[in-house]
Amino acid sequence: MSDVMKMACVGVHVLDHLVIGIASIPEHNDGQLVETIRATAAGTAGGTALVAARLGADVRSIGAIGDDVLADTLLALLVREGVDTSGLLRKAGHQTSASVLPVRPGGDRPAWHCIGANAVFTPVDVTDEQLRDLTHLHLGGPEFLGGDAAASLLARARACGATTSVDMLAPGDPTILQWIAAALPETDYLLPNHEQVMGLTGADDLVTGARALVSAGAGCVAVTRGAHGAVVVTADEVVEVPAYAVKVVDTTGCGDAFSAGFLRARSLGLGLREAAEIGCATSAQVVAGLGTDAGTYTLDAVRAFAATADRLDTQ
Questions:
Q1: CA pair distance 254, 264, nearest whole angstrom
Q2: Residue 94: inside a domain
Q3: What is the pTM of this model?
Q4: Please, how many CA atoms are within 13 Å of residue 273, restricted to the half-sphere of its CB?
Q5: Pick the residue with more confidence: 105 or 169?
């Protein structure tokens, strides 16, 4: 298998604004000094694109942005990481999707979010030429398209010889599963978090929920579990891997980093366990800093970290 991964990250692209050093939300017109305010490219497509490019994939972003200064910033942040942004279309009359995230001392962060131009992105915005040379298509936010439209896009990529993956932005809910169900048979890798799996399926435990999603059509379900690592489920296999022991600064982008690491490892022909370990190791690089683009690392550095770093004992 070739080491070259030609990947399109399609769908949700967001400009995150992160604030660290939050003690509380000021009341009335009061103010508060904080440690850091910074912006980062994010979203289930944008964040995955950024990290995958760092891991050596040839990445193009495809989606919708506004015709505003937020778009200028988002484009610059992605281009700086080597992402081809020619597939990000400016939509007049719509702002670029953006979030404001006050980061608590433990790394958790509530969010204020504006959907913006992501709401008007459709598969029509993806040309056949953009799909023709891909080895992989990652769709972030199928719920914005609906299952039939998402399935059509994924099927087009598969017809060009690409593998496919899907990551949701919405919280898990049975109605969301119904809405995107048609896309699952066209999905080689579904990449939810544990709360989404439990909410989508109503299962009593995570493995049962992941198996239900495999039964619904997904080829493989790789679930992130925060400090508990990840679980990968196929029709024939269940793999559990622990997280790595690192100091948590900010959890923004950890799921997107896992997706990028897992998919990059699979593109190299690695098995499910090692791919999940690479995914968790990539996530560990991000959680130790502020924002999806935290730190500096390469695929070789991540693989070395995965081989030597301490694991969390969460049993």
A1: 15
A2: yes
A3: 0.95
A4: 6
A5: 169
